[in-house]
Amino acid sequence: MRMIKVLLTDDQTIIREGLHALLVTHPDINVVGEACNGKEAYEKTKSLRPDIILMDIRMPEMDGVEATRLIKKDFHETNVIVLTTFDDDEYIIKAMSYGASGYLLKDIAGQKLVEAIRDALSGNIILPGRVAAKITAKLNQNSPSDVKPEDFTEREIEIIRLIMQGKSNKDIAQSLYLSIGTVKNYISQIYMKADVNDRANAVLFFKKLGF
Q1: pTM for the whole structure
Q2: Under CATH, which number does the domain 4-140 receive?
C-alpha cells in the first residue's frame, strides 16, 4: 500500500487540527506537515515534497492561488487541492489555470475528501458539481481558440483520451507500448497545440473540445 504524503495549509488552527484528526484515521494517508499561509506551504513543499497539498484560499502573507502557482511551477509532481469556503469564479478559474488538481468546498463530507485525495494522486481532476458548472459557464463564454480535433494526429488523440481517463505517463507508456520519454514528447506537442501547460488545463480544454 502506497502512503500518500499530505500537507495541510490553512490559516485557522482548528481547521488544520480537524483535517489532521480525520486523515490520520486512514492507514494510506500520512500528514507530513502543516502550514498557516501560502508562503509557508511553498517552503514546506520544498523540504517535505508532499504528494498532495490541501490548500486554503484566503490566507495572510500569500494566498492559496499564488501559492498554487508557485508550487506547480517548481514542484510539478505535487498535486494541489484547493479546500475553501469560497466558490468565487475568479478564485476557481485562477487556481485551476495554475494547475490545481481540484477545487473543493469545506462542507464536503470527510470520506469524500479522502476519496478526492486518492483520486487526485491518480491524476483525476476533482470538482464538485456546482464548481464544475461555474467552470463550464466560463469556458462557454470563451471558446477554445481555433484548435480543432483534426489538428491532432491519431497517436496524439490516443494519448489525449488516456489523459482524460486520468492515466499517468507511465500508464500511457505501458498501454501504448511506448517509452516514457516518447510519451512526454507527445504530451509536450499536445500541450503546445492546445496552448496549455499542465494536465488540469488540458483536461478542461479537451472536455470543451468534445473529447
Answers
A1: 0.67
A2: 3.40.50.2300
